Description:
By secondary structure, this protein is mostly helical.
Amino acid sequence: MEETRAKLIAAGRKAFAEKGFAGAYMDDFTAEAGLTRGALYHNFGDKRGLLAAVVDEIDSAMAAQAQLAGQRAGGGWAGLLAEGAAYIEMALQPDVQRIVLLDGPSVLGDPSQWPSQNRCLQATIATLQDLASEGLIKPVDIEALARLLNGMALNAALWVAASDDPAATLRKAIAAFECLASGVLVASEAGPPPAPAT
């Protein structure tokens, strides 16, 4: 059962990346995986269900990569900023652009309601709770702050993915993300303001 699901998800990821949701057909998934339509219906219900599973897999991997970037930055506030920047930067990857950031919202609806985004939210809440307990951030509702920080990173990634010049947009998006996010720090932690992006 798990092997069948994994084969279909891999086939779906390939087809959605190459053809987009609208251009991919059931036979693309089943032929690539060497399975029947019945296996697809049984495991995912329909093409939309398969897209949801593919998006969850990719978005979860994006979150894991972002967390790794945060660990490399030393955790804490620097780690949180590094996670956000890494997540936004992944919008340059063609399969992430097409599947997660373009087709995902148009087919599956509000990304903030996706299971993968909820897991990311919980991780951000935990980090912010640690920062609050150390007195490093201003007294503000942690869940609200986590939702807004994650929303900024997600919307920045959506902007990069839809841009005519993703690399230039990425630089502007990360600079703005870091500028806005730093507003939550207590004054002693904020440091000097960042240089304006050119």
